[in-house]
Write a structure and sequence with these properties.
The complex is a heterodimer of chains A (about 750) and B (about 200).
Chain A (H helix, E strand, L loop, with lengths): L31 H5 L15 E7 L5 E6 L1 H5 L3 E6 L5 E3 L6 E7 L2 H10 L1 E6 L6 H5 L16 E3 L2 H8 L4 E9 L11 E5 L6 E5 L7 H9 L6 E4 L14 H14 L3 E4 L2 H7 L5 E10 L5 E11 L28 H5 L4 E7 L15 H19 L3 H7 L4 H14 L19 E9 L11 E6 L5 E4 L9 H12 L7 E4 L16 H28 L6 E4 L2 E4 L5 E4 H6 L6 E6 L12 E9 L5 E10 L7 H20 L5 E2 L4 E2 L17 E6 L19 H13 L10 H14 L4
Parallel strand pairs in A: 1-12, 10-11, 14-15, 18-19, 25-28
Antiparallel strand pairs in A: 1-5, 2-4, 2-6, 3-5, 7-15, 8-13, 9-10, 9-12, 13-14, 16-24, 17-18, 17-23, 20-21, 21-22, 24-25, 26-27
Helix pairs in contact in A: 6-7, 10-17, 13-14, 16-17
Chain B lengths: L2 H4 L4 H6 L9 H13 L8 E7 L2 E7 L5 H8 L20 E4 L2 E4 L12 E3 L12 H8 L9 H14 L5 H7 L10 H16 L3
Parallel strand pairs in B: 1-5
Antiparallel strand pairs in B: 1-2, 3-4, 3-5
Helix pairs in contact in B: 5-8, 6-8
Classes of the chains: A alpha+beta (about 750), B alpha+beta (about 200).
Chain lengths: ~750, ~200
Amino acid sequence: METRTNAGSESPEWGPRESLTLLNTNLRRVDGPEKVSGRARYTHDIRLPGMVFARLLLCPLPRAEVELDCTAAAKIPGVVAARSLRDKDGFETKFLGQAVAVVAAETPELAEDGLRAIRANYKPLPWAASADQALSPDAGQVTKNGNLGKESTKGDEAKANAILATCDATVEAEYRLPVQHHCSLETHGVVVDYRGGDEATVYASTQGTFTVPEAASGPLGLSASKITAIVEYMGGGFGSKFDFGIEGKTACELAKELKRPVHLMLTREGEFLNSGNRSGSIVKLRAGAKRNGKLIAISSSTMRMGGIGGGSFSGLPYVYKVAPPDEEAGEESDEKAKNPDGVRSSVRSLYTHTDSSRAMRAPGHPQASFAMESAIDELAYKLGIDPLVMRKTNLAKDVYHRQLDRAAERIGWGAHPNKTAPQKTPDADGTVTGIGFGVSVWGGGGHAECRVKISIGNDGSLQAIVGTQDLGNGTRTYVAAIAAQEFGLPLEAATARIGNSNYGRANASGGSTTAASLAPAVKVAAHKAREAFLAHLAQATKRPAEELAFRGGSLVEREGSKALMTWKEACATLGTSGLSEDGDWQASLASNGVHGAQAAKVKVDLGTGRVTVVSMVGVQDCGLPLNRTAVESQLNGGMIQALSYALHEERVIDPKLGLMLNANFVDYKIAGCQEMPELVPLIDDDDIGRGVIGMAEPAITPGHSAIANAIYNACGVRLRSLPFTADRVLDGLAELAANGGAK
Amino acid sequence: MTLGDRSPVSRRSFLKGAGGVAAAGSALGAAQALSASQQVERLSGTTEIQLDINGEKFKVRVEPRTSLLNALRNHCEPPLTGTKIVCDRGSCGACTVFVNKQPVYSCMLLAVDCTEKKITTVEGLAVGGKLTHVQEEFVAHDALMCGFCTPGFVMSVTACLEKNPKATREEIQSACSGNLCRCGTYPRIFEAALAAGKKLQGGR
């Protein structure tokens, strides 16, 4: 039922969900056919006349004095440039895989030849390539203040200790998370189209179309306003593709030098070594709860391992509330509620001579989640409390209770026989089964950063135009859907034109802020265009605009729905320039703050130690879902990446040799088809009345924690280091056997 | 095995170009010295070969080491960039094409070994622009996100269903186990493949 008027000056609203014809339904991606047919052109696929291929030479040591001689390389027929990335040929490097030189050539193979022909002399300098090495007294120093960053603390240790001493159950443990890589399938890189003159086009695999012109301006020596960035399609970013990077800067410099288009995409090895990562963490934690399950103290000290960068860690306690030690003592002050005496934390960075961490999907959250959810779980089993009940006891918000209950129901927690202790007797096939849980939190709100143009042509075309980028979350599709719905048209009737810095501005896609920043601006522009079009049609039909509406592909009478004109006929009444309106963000169309609960069911083979994830359930709120299919796919993607982190992923560096041992997809394993469990993405439809909110990041946060807890629930082995490999499970089982069962 | 055993490419045409490319790097220089001393035939330089791709003949100028993947992407005119480069060492499946109907990693094949063979790339599936059942079901089931792994998966699923349109979910998982996706489209790919299999069983 339509309740809003179709004309007038009221502000745009999404309207009741049942009135939505496209949004909140299952939409097919508008760019699906391009992607399945190979027609979608990514930056890596750009081919231009006279284009050269460039490759970077990466320093094979964590820290070294480098001397370069590029003369032989430059002489190879087909090599057009070979040079140091510094003004000089001798300099000091700061991290493993740092780019030191570049070669450009007519083919990628010749560029590789050029790299091999560079005579590079690396004199090793003392380095720190691992956490242990960085902490040893004779380690190389990453900063002039040493390898440990400044400590940032919260709370009072003595007070937290005093409360810990009164707890009925405590846990004291160290949780370790290794460095994880983004593994975007399209590597970082750009194609710079500059052939002289004062204009350039930069194709970039980036999360921020509008970050490119300014970043390219310096190295190209052109005004940013003369540089067009194009991001039609991009093959994944996950937080790693905000920086223009050494690859972008170098490609621009080469193009300026050569006056030829330059293609510079990192190799897969370069992608592992030189394009960021999720920082690792070591979390030492003590937590305590009362007999009733109330968490009353958590004291932690964390080291973030972000290479030469600071790393990220979202803080403890994570999501869960720490209660006052004596609740019967009456109402506590707001100040006490915010900063309970039981909370104490210290966080500092531990630097190594490795690539700087970058944002990665929910930066710092999976790390904090793992320590928090493990500690909550450990306390629950110690107290003999159902881990689901334990969680709800310490989560204040109803939304978590509802989401956890839904996840629990779907994964089969109710009928699960071993809720408060691991499975006693293995099944006939030698496996035991367990279930675990975790929760997440994120902002996901929007900002006034986008300007969208809606353009209607007298040929019946409807376009939504904005420079934003689609990382694969389905941005292009919802931009078209919002426009089509406004005019009562099917999705195919609208075209979204995105990925060009000459279009209306848009924010970079970080922090799950794209949907909540962009969708409102599309809606406002579409709303304005509809009002303007109806005003025009009022004249053409000699009826008051208030009596007109667009529905079912036609201009209709508001009441009675009598069709007056088809959409095409209505558009034909426009002049040759058509009609267009711009829209900006409107706060009331977006909201902020999402939650999320996930459950995992695993089988552990007691003979081999192998963990098989059987199913994962994710329950996620996101305000108004723009495209239910895309939201579910994001939720699947988050759970799968968490599963992958849980079971496989870990950067391995040999500290002595200073080499990364797994900078490829053979040795750095990510989850594949064979490991896929049943995945159940559930949108929390009880989240009503809110506007659009982004949800991609919380989807990745709790999955690995839920898997760790499920492993314990299955076999009694508490794994406190990722990844949960078979050898770690077997070690844990052996320890259990030696100690006579689960503790 | 020498090149001549498998390919009609003239060995001499490569030898003519020998010396230019390899002369520079010291490692290559050593190899060259070794081969000269032992009178071993070396292949270098470039030659023109003809590849049969998607039913069309492409004349491409390649080196002996040029992979089929790089020949498709960098040497064909127009370039066939639907086949993606991701790992370049046979571990992710993004470069999957058919050679004589068999799915293969094109990064692991030499272009010169593919003359006189029928190559099909993702661009060759949709005849006359009409998507195949597999492609249609990928779109219908949202079996793609960023889309960079998608052409490889479309090829692997197509090959699997051509052999057996009744393939079970487990068989599809196995057939695609050489393909990687980072966005997390796997479950949707399996659904799409099962749906496409049903359509194929029902007659094209």
